[in-house]
Specification:
The complex is a heterodimer of chains A (about 575) and B (about 170).
Chain A: H1 3-10, H2 21-27, H3 44-70, E1 99-103, E2 114-117, E3 121-125, E4 128-130, E5 136-138, E6 142-146, E7 151-155, E8 167-170, E9 175-186, E10 189-200, E11 205-208, E12 220-223, E13 228-231, E14 244-248, E15 253-257, E16 266-271, E17 276-281, E18 295-300, E19 305-308, E20 319-324, E21 327-332, E22 337-341, E23 346-350, E24 363-367, E25 370-375, E26 378-383, E27 390-392, E28 400-407, E29 410-416, E30 427-433, H4 447-456, H5 466-469, H6 480-487, E31 504-510, E32 517-524, E33 531-542, E34 548-560
Antiparallel strand pairs in A: 1-30, 2-3, 3-6, 4-5, 6-7, 8-9, 9-10, 10-11, 12-13, 13-14, 14-15, 16-17, 17-18, 18-19, 20-21, 21-22, 22-23, 24-25, 25-26, 26-27, 28-29, 29-30, 31-32, 32-33, 33-34
Chain B: H1 5-8, H2 21-40, H3 43-60, H4 67-86, H5 102-112, H6 116-127, H7 132-139, H8 143-161
The chains are: A mainly beta (about 575), B mainly alpha (about 170).
Chain lengths: ~575, ~170
């Protein structure tokens, strides 16, 4: 996304740079071994290393470009939520407690993989795996999470090439995959595949699908209960096919479907029970849309015909949509949400998600009873019968979410432990079940507990004033005792705060004439010259989801010292 | 310049590690220096921050697992602190010697309309190519906060850079 801004910033490469290596060596403690000047005839080994670094940057840039241009996350969240499996279904196998419940650690996270929930197992096939060097490799095998045993098993290698972003469906007895991206580019166009296969988890065997009557692509797709429909493209590309096909596993055959009425590049697809809805926008590489707002169309497989949806008020540049409760719930990165009803063929504007407008593409899946979404690492939930989103506080989830998938009554959330510079380290998986009440995100803190929370680190309860609250110099200065208190499950504080890191609580005192507290926290900056005291005003209020909270941060004011 | 007690506590330790710091310098220094000029508007601050960040990194040796990202983080922290101390952070000063092209001057002027956090997030994400999560770590912020900075920065740059930028 936003390649034009990248181009503008790249103009700065015309700036001549100074030679600073001698200054670096001078600053390294006096008398130490001087490093050779890197600008003087680099050794072969150094050239190789530089090449590796450059290649890594290229790979990272390519991965970023792919993520942004295609509008899909590099995590393993599915682009098109599969409808509930027709069979077999089993009793909900996940922990009944609301919130986050840890499950068996996944062996790895597959970006752009096919993911289907069978009713008792999560099948993950293909996709890319990044290692510590940030090199990505595509896979043709898969992983299977068995909920009854809370274990992971391997899916054998498929008889087709490795790929990412294939169409996929659970038919009731098989995982069907078709199409996808090879990870390579031919000019500006992605190199895609036009074959497919089906995996039977009972026999552990694969079979190859017959040839499809459409060209290779990474398509939008939906499972109707009888057919896997593949249509258009999910890539931001100049080649925007309007054609599509449907695969019927019962007859092991394909049929062409009628051409669609609109072009889409950044879109999602959903099955309503009678129609496939495709919704999004057609964007050029420069991120400019051809329509003022997101557009959509509906395909009826019975009549083999399309109809266009009325215009929405959803932004073209970063949006997603999920079929839920008889409506298509569409939302974007700029705090818009709308619901489309096929019954009335109208859009209804809803309150936007309680997440600040953010430079990211939202992702969402529909589970039974709720939609689970994410934007810029913040999770939101819309429950059945409601026209609003709730903020999901990430309590007990001190990890970075890296994708999620619907699994019946819960969503399975993949998470990465540690900082993003070592993000290919420990992985985690949780089930998430929304609570019966979202009152204040589910927490109610006394002043003492809140003071302990502040003392323990931390990030301030999320605010709509991130620029005011951000204090980047403090990040490296967390106290060991604070970290320990923060991590203590008894304190139930994880995820409670965001945006401000503090080092030490200096004082906590009640507000003079009203309910609430003043908390003074001391912070340090990296330069060592800035000892700062921040005064946080905590009083009852409402969080960004509008839920009543015992205490929220009402103000944060620099009261002493200086950051400079 | 003085980095402070926390910054020098490991000075002189592990500086002779096996890591090829020259290669790291070659891979990172030019882009880092340019980003810091765009951030602060000062060649002097950029040069000082780059040199100090590399010196600090070399002193830490193998303690640093990701030297490139670590150096970017250190250099941005040093440069932003220096810019605040010199009060040249906003609006950023325009370097004039040697002269810059008009497009770069326009770019710096547009970037100067952003807050320091917005500008840093923009440079790290769009210029240096760091992901949202990496940018957040470098700035000591959260991914969501960085995303908000980028969203607002892009809207402001669209106004400043006009039709050439479009989206």
């Amino acid at each position: 996304m936003h390649t034009d801004l990248r181009k503008r910033l790249a103009e700065a490469k015309s700036l001549p740079t100074p030679e600073l290596w001698d200054e670096v060596t001078t600053r390294v403690a006096k008398g130490v071994v001087l490093m050779p000047n890197p600008h003087e005839a680099p050794s072969i080994a150094r050239r190789v290393l530089v090449g590796v670094v450059a290649f890594s940057v290229f790979i990272a840039a390519g991965a970023f470009a792919w993520n942004t241009l295609s509008g899909v996350d590099d995590g393993s969240s599915v682009q098109t939520p599969a409808p509930p499996a027709p069979s077999p279904t089993v009793a909900d196998p996940f922990p009944a407690a609301p919130g986050w419940s840890p499950l068996a650690t996944p062996p790895e996270i597959r970006g752009g993989s096919a993911q289907v929930w069978t009713g008792s197992r999560l099948l993950v096939w293909g996709g890319s795996v990044e290692d510590a060097t940030r090199s990505a490799r595509l896979e043709a095998d898969g992983l299977m999470y068995v909920s009854s045993d809370d274990t992971w098993e391997e899916i054998p290698r498929a008889p087709i090439e490795p790929r990412s972003y294939p169409a996929s469906a659970w038919t009731g007895s098989e995982l069907v995959v078709w199409g996808g991206w090879t990870g390579a580019w031919v000019g500006d166009e992605p190199e895609t595949l036009g074959d497919g296969a089906a995996f039977d988890p009972v026999t552990g065997s694969w079979r190859v699908l017959p040839p499809a009557p459409v060209d290779a692509r990474a398509p939008l797709f939906a499972w109707t209960g009888e057919e896997l429909i593949v249509w258009g493209t999910s890539f931001r590309t100049e080649n925007r096919p309007l054609d599509g096909a449907a695969y019927n596993p019962a007859s092991d055959s394909w049929r062409r479907i009628a051409d669609g009425p609109i072009e889409l590049t950044d879109a999602t697809a959903a099955w309503t029970g009678s129609e496939m809805l495709v919704f999004g926008a057609a964007l050029h590489g420069g991120n400019s849309a051809e329509t003022p707002t997101a557009i959509g169309a509906a395909y009826d497989p019975v009549s083999d015909s399309w109809r266009e949806l009325p215009p929405s008020d959803i932004d073209t540049n970063a949006n997603t949509a999920s079929w839920f409760d008889g409506r298509l719930i569409a939302w974007d990165y700029a705090e818009h949400t709308s619901a489309y009803s096929p019954e009335t063929n109208t859009w209804t504007a809803l309150a936007g998600p309680p997440v600040d407008a953010c430079e990211d593409t939202p992702q969402a899946v529909s589970a039974r009873g709720f939609v689970f979404g994410e934007l810029c690492s913040e999770q939101v939930v819309m429950r059945s019968g409601e026209d609003r989103w709730h903020n999901v506080t990430r309590r007990d989830l001190p990890f970075s979410p890296a994708g999620f998938a619907a699994a019946g009554d819960v969503v399975l959330v993949f998470a990465i432990e540690g900082d993003p510079f070592t993000q290919y380290g420990p992985l985690r998986m949780f089930s998430y079940r929304p609570p019966s009440s979202f009152s204040c995100g589910g927490f109610s803190e006394s002043g003492e507990a809140l003071a302990a929370a502040v003392a323990a680190r931390f990030e301030l309860l999320r605010s709509d004033r991130p620029e005011v609250l951000s204090r980047p110099e403090i990040d490296e200065l967390l106290s060991a005792s604070g970290e320990a208190a923060y991590a203590d499950p008894a304190n139930e504080l994880v995820g409670l705060f965001a945006d401000v890191h503090v080092d030490q609580v200096m004082a906590v005192r009640p507000l003079p004439d009203e309910e609430g507290f003043i908390v003074e926290v001391r912070m340090w900056n990296l330069n060592g010259s800035g000892e700062v005291t921040e005064q946080l005003i905590l009083r009852p209020g409402r969080n960004l989801a509008g839920d009543a909270c015992a205490l929220v941060v009402a103000d944060a004011t620099l009261t002493q010292g200086s950051l400079g | 310049m003085q980095i402070g007690a926390r910054g020098v506590q490991h000075a002189g330790v592990n500086h002779a590690s096996g890591r090829d710091w020259g290669a790291v310098y070659l891979a990172e220094s030019d882009a880092l220096w340019r980003a810091l000029v765009l951030q602060t508007g000062s060649r002097e601050i950029a040069s000082d921050a780059v040199a100090e960040a590399f010196a600090q990194a070399i002193a830490r040796g193998d303690e640093i697992r990701k030297p490139g990202a670590w150096i970017w983080k250190a250099a941005f922290t040093i440069a932003r602190t220096e810019a605040r101390q010199r009060r040249v952070g906003t609006p950023i000063a325009l370097p004039s010697d040697p002269p810059m092209s008009d497009t770069v001057v326009d770019l710096i002027r547009a970037l100067a309309t952003l807050s320091s956090n917005q500008r840093a997030a923009t440079l790290l994400h769009y210029f240096a190519g760091y992901s949202l999560a990496e940018t957040a770590t470098i700035l000591g912020s959260s991914r969501s906060t960085v995303g908000v900075h980028l969203f607002r920065a892009r809207n402001k740059l669209r106004d400043e850079l006009g039709a050439d930028y479009a989206h």
